[in-house]
Amino acid sequence: MKKILLIVIILMFSVQAKPQNDAYPKGLYMSFEEVVEKLPSQNYDVELEERAKGEIKMNGGNDYQLNPINKNVKKKFLRGNVYAYSDGTDLYLNCLKYELQVWYSKVEGENEQYFLFNAGIPMFPKDYGIKNNDISYVFGVIGAFSAAKKALVRLPYLLNKESEEVVLVSEKNIKEVIGNSSKLAIEFDKEAEKEDVEVLSKYLLRWLDE
Q1: Which of 21, 29, 32, 124 has an alpha carbon 20 to 30 Å from 4's alpha carbon atom?
Q2: Angle of CA points 62, 119, 126, to nearest 5°
Q3: Which residue range forms the structural domain that includes residue 85?
Q4: Per the confidence metrics, is the pTM higher than 0.90?
Q5: d(CA 25, CA 175)
Q6: How far, rounded to the nearest angstrom, does the alpha carbon of residue 176 sit from its chain's CA centroid?
């Protein structure tokens, strides 16, 4: 009877503990090591703001920003020094650390090796294998981009948890990621709009969930 009771207690603890292990504790992560280890070292009072499209068109940057609630921390610090922020539910990566414009992007999915997130056009496109800033060619967008439209473009990226390398995923390299001969790759080949960002993100999320 005692053994049965002990097993029940262990199972109950495991069920309760699992969400805590999977979540990123609320706070500011000041290094990539802190992100991977889920150990935020700062807990300043900040507000997470989803930026309006009009502001993004005017000033550029990604979809979320952190605002200080009091004078204990400055906006400049939140913009440049922090690696990531968690509100206790979702994790937001500071894209400036990877030269993917300012402010933060939400992690859309992850596995043991990668984070998946969507962010703006790289500040230095050639570093991500894009020649002559030609995002419209790589991702099949028809027509020229105005500066305002460029500011709203979101592209899929994978961040390696071990090496901290960031890879821009496009039609050209997605099968190298998901496996050239995998079932997902076969399904992807049947897609009519392989260069579409939503299509790419859909297959990356499915791959992460495998």
Answers
A1: 21
A2: 115
A3: 2-168
A4: no
A5: 33
A6: 20
Q: Is residue 47 part of a domain?
A: yes
Beta carbons of 105 and 64 less than 8 angstroms apart = yes
Strand, helix or coil for residue 95: helix
204 located within any domain: no
Given a contact cutoff of 8 angstroms between Cβ atoms, the answer to whether 204 and 115 are in contact is no
Per-residue pLDDT of the chain (210 residues; tens, 9 = 90+): 544 444 444 444 443 333 334 689 999 999 999 999 999 999 999 999 999 999 999 999 999 999 999 888 999 999 999 999 999 999 999 999 999 999 999 999 999 999 999 999 999 988 888 775 556 555 555 455 677 788 999 999 999 999 999 999 999 999 999 998 799 999 999 999 998 999 999 999 999 998
Strand partners, 85: 28, 92
Q: Three-class SS of residue 138?
A: helix
173, part of any domain = no
- DSSP E strand stretches across the chain: 27-29, 46-50, 64-68, 84-86, 91-94, 104-110, 114-119, 155-160, 166-168
Domain count, the chain: 1
For 207, the token pair is 């791959």
Q: Which of 140, 135, 108, 115 is CA-nearest to residue 123?
A: 135
Residue 207 forms part of a structural domain: no
Amino acid at 22: D
Q: Among all chains, which residue has been given the structure tokens 């068109």?
A: 57
Task: Classify residue 179 as left (phi > 0), alpha (psi -120 to 50) or beta.
Answer: left
Distance CA 178, CA 189 (A): 12
